[in-house]
Amino acid sequence: MKILGNIIWLVFGGLGIAVEYFVSSLLLMITIIGIPFGIATLRLGILALWPFGSHVVDQPQDAGCLNMIMNVLWFFVGGIWIALTHLGFGLLLSITIVGLPWGMMHFRLMRLALAPFGKEIVNNDF
């Protein structure tokens, strides 16, 4: 069922979202300062490419307050706009019962788009 959900996700918009994440990741990695943000965007793109069957967990807090500072910068620079885009798509897809799983996936991506630092994506396909 996860494979079918991922294929439908890719065909009806997931591939477009992943490509947008990958392009923005490359643009962010042009500067040295943008590399951590580019890596976070790259992780979001990987999750947007194959979201069903994986989940997000908190990393151990060995980075100190750096994750919090990066999340605050991320929120004000672009995270809020990415989250609002996922909110709009999630609400649009949740209108029907058929689109509800994909709407819920946008809500999950929205949560990660607000604060991606200090999170890890774990695949459940074992």
TrEMBL record:
Query: Sorted alphabetically, which InterPro entries does this protein's record hold?
Result: Inner_membrane_protein, UCP028777, YccF
Classification of source organism: Bacteria, Pseudomonadati, Bacteroidota, Bacteroidia, Bacteroidales
Domain of life of the native organism: Bacteria
Pfam families to which the protein is assigned, alphabetical: YccF
**What keywords were assigned to this record?**
Membrane, Transmembrane, Transmembrane helix
Question: Could you identify this protein by its name?
Answer: Inner membrane component domain-containing protein
- NCBIfam families referenced in this protein's UniProt entry, alphabetically: PRK11770.1-2
Q: Which GO terms describe its cellular component?
A: plasma membrane
Tell me the ranges covered by the Inner membrane component domain, including all copies: 4-53, 69-119
Q: What residue intervals traverse the membrane?
A: 6-23, 30-52, 72-102
